[in-house]
């Protein structure tokens, strides 16, 4: 596995630019690591030790023939869901 980038989301929880562009945008299997525990700790939320969800890993495939992938993550300290957005 190769680390391609590290990105902090903006106030809306979105990346300011596409994470893969140009030659980096290729078909393949990718992982996003969402640091949900750090997000809550930074906001003063008291989490159990260890946190139930600390780093949420979303593994998904990309077909480079398709133009756009949006991978939203909705999470709480105890659950999460994701889908291919528009």
Layout of helices and strands, plus pairs?
Layout: E1 28-34, H1 36-42, E2 56-62, E3 73-76, E4 79-82
Antiparallel strand pairs: 1-2, 3-4
Structural class: mainly beta
Distance, first to last CA: 27 Å
Instruction: Write down the Rg.
Output: 14 Å
* Poorly predicted residue ranges: none
Largest sheet: 2 strands, antiparallel
Order of helices and strands: EHEEE
- What average pLDDT do the residues reach? 94
Number of helices: 1
Instruction: Please state the overall shape, judged from the principal axes of the Cα atoms.
Output: elongated
What strand line-up does the widest sheet have? 1-2
According to DSSP, the number of beta strands is 4
Beta-strand percentage?
A: 25-35%
Classify the helix fraction into a percent range.
Answer: under 10%
Account of the 3D structure:
By secondary structure, the chain is mainly β. It has a domain at 27-68. The chain has 1 helix and 4 strands, in the order βαβββ. The strands form 2 sheets. Strands 1-2 form a two-stranded antiparallel sheet. Strands 3-4 form a two-stranded antiparallel ribbon. Strand 3 and strand 4 (79-82) form a beta hairpin. The protein starts with 27 loop residues before the first strand and ends with a strand. The model has no long low-confidence stretch (mean pLDDT 94).
Descriptive labels:
86 residues; mainly beta; 4 strands; 26% strand; 8% helix; two-stranded antiparallel ribbon
């Amino acid at each position: 596995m190769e680390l391609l980038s590290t990105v902090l989301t903006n106030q809306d929880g979105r990346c300011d630019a596409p994470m893969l562009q140009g030659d980096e945008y290729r078909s393949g299997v990718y992982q996003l690591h969402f640091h949900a525990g750090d997000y809550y700790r930074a906001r003063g939320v008291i989490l159990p030790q260890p946190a139930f969800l600390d780093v949420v890993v979303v593994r998904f495939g990309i077909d480079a023939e398709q133009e756009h992938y949006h991978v939203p993550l909705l999470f709480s300290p105890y659950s999460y869901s994701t889908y291919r957005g528009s």
